[in-house]
Amino acid sequence: MLWTSDAPTFGSFLEWAKAYTLEGLEKEITCPTLCMTARGEGTFSMNQVQKFYAALQCPKRLIMLLAADDADSRCGLGFAR
Question: What does the buried/exposed string (b/e) look like for 41-72 if buried means 16 or more CB atoms within 10 Å of the residue's CB?
């Protein structure tokens, strides 16, 4: 991340990364859009994807990864049973 952003510190990278958001641009997205999240991502991520999905006006699909799919942990990873 530091190399890509040319940021000298992680803190400066976080400041640099704040500029990268789709907030307010959802209505400009016209191509079919797939939104995915996993139950294990936590409340913040769940709220974020649901807000983004609701704001989209294009063809869209939301997939919620679950423990039953063995994909409910961070980034949709699961643990084989």
Answer: beeeeeeebeebbeebeeebeeebbeeeeebb
Q: Domain map of the chain by residue range?
A: 24-81
Structure token digits, residue 71: 């994909």
DSSP string, 29-59: --S-EEEEEEGGG-HHHHHHHHHHHHH--SS
Q: Could you tell me which residues come within 8 angstroms of residue 58 by beta carbon, excluding any fewer than 6 positions away?
A: 29, 30, 31, 32, 33
- Which pTM value belongs to this model? 0.71
- Local confidence pLDDT in tens for the 81 residues of the chain: 788 888 899 999 998 888 888 999 999 999 999 998 888 788 888 899 999 999 999 999 999 887 777 776 665 566 555
